[in-house]
Design brief:
40% helix, three-stranded antiparallel beta sheet, 12 helices
Length: 331
């Protein structure tokens, strides 16, 4: 998520569990996500879109349908054939754990068990939607009022809206949902008999909430800020973006450790096929980056059944190619 593949590979010694997986995987050095955005990058893979250039939402009986594709050829994602439907038709038992994209609704007829991160956070015992009118009001009012930058300078927003701390709100939303999502995922793979498992983790997304120096989670956003300020002195946009995303790799390394341990205890690690996909890999110079520059920026590795050595694959690989690869793995 928004981190160049080389940021991981050039520092791989810091991530021993990911490195162990790399040693038994095909590493695609020229994967092209075709998108800067999760909503397009992930849907293109799960539903086989070659050109996820545009997207839009439409309301459908109080639900939101996602349309994806080329400008004049947008298709309803839930009406296209997903990898889940392909595997279901071949008799697979499917478990999905997802956030951001409502797979539990799009593919409900094909998924045996599904967990979806709710767009909400527990604030004082009340569930407040991340996209509720109150949230949008407080988060975006300063962008809507003409001259708001001058009001901000005199503390207008801070003085009037102290009740809503959007930085801590966002931090707690991600942290709480990470804990719920990760707990559900690890419990399911320990006990479940599903033979196709899809996990779209919230881990990679800013803000960070894991302190690797203490091996514990931060309690509030200010602790995160103090930690980053101490560690990353240069606080320009690029370095902070790098810090947020790079620090989350340590939490990802812990996840890979837990997954490998569980699969080994079940004696199915070697026989399992594992795909680690980085969503939308970006360089640090986001503002100057073109969509054409994305090739090779997104991490993609595939551990095949009983694979023992690392293999580098330099050929071009796009989201439709990955969709076809996943479908072809169904036995």
């Amino acid at each position: 998520e928004q981190l160049d593949t080389n940021s991981l590979l050039n520092n791989i010694d810091e991530f021993p569990n990911i490195n162990e997986l790399l040693d038994k995987s095909d590493i695609y050095t020229n994967y092209d996500s075709k998108s800067f955005e999760t909503i397009r990058a992930v849907s293109a893979v799960t539903n086989g879109f070659e050109k996820p250039e545009k997207y839009k939402f439409k309301y459908n009986n109080r639900n939101i349908d996602l349309f994806l594709g080329e400008d004049k050829n947008l298709k309803n994602v839930s009406k296209t054939k997903s990898v889940f439907e392909e595997y279901y038709q071949k008799g697979y038992s499917i478990y999905v754990n997802s956030w951001y994209i409502p797979h539990c609704r799009f593919d409900e007829n094909f998924i045996k068990k599904c967990f979806q991160v709710p767009y909400g956070s527990d604030l004082g015992g009340k569930i407040l939607s991340f996209y509720s009118p109150k949230s949008i009001f407080f988060l975006h009012l300063n962008y809507l009022i003409p001259g708001s930058k001058y009001l901000s300078k005199i503390g207008f927003f801070e003085n009037n809206f102290k009740v809503f701390d959007h930085k801590n709100y966002s931090f707690n939303w991600y942290k709480n949902n990470y804990l719920i999502q990760n707990e559900n995922f690890l419990k399911q793979i320990k006990k479940d008999d599903a033979n196709l498992i899809f996990y779209q983790s919230i881990i990679a997304h800013p803000p960070i909430f894991y302190n690797r120096e203490t091996n514990s989670l931060f309690n509030e956003y200010q602790e995160v800020y103090d930690y980053l300020e101490k560690k990353y002195k240069d606080k320009n946009i690029d370095s902070l973006l790098y810090a947020y995303n790079y620090e989350n790799l340590y939490l990802l390394d812990n996840l890979i450790k837990n997954i490998s341990k569980i699969l080994k205890e079940k004696k199915i690690f070697d026989s399992s096929k594992i795909i680690l996909h980085g969503d939308t890999g970006l360089s640090l110079k986001i503002k100057s980056q073109n969509i054409e520059d994305l090739s090779g920026k997104t991490l993609l590795l595939i551990k095949n059944k009983n694979q023992k050595t690392r293999k580098i694959i330099n050929q071009y690989f796009g989201p439709r190619d990955l969709y076809n690869e996943i479908v072809s793995m169904a036995e």
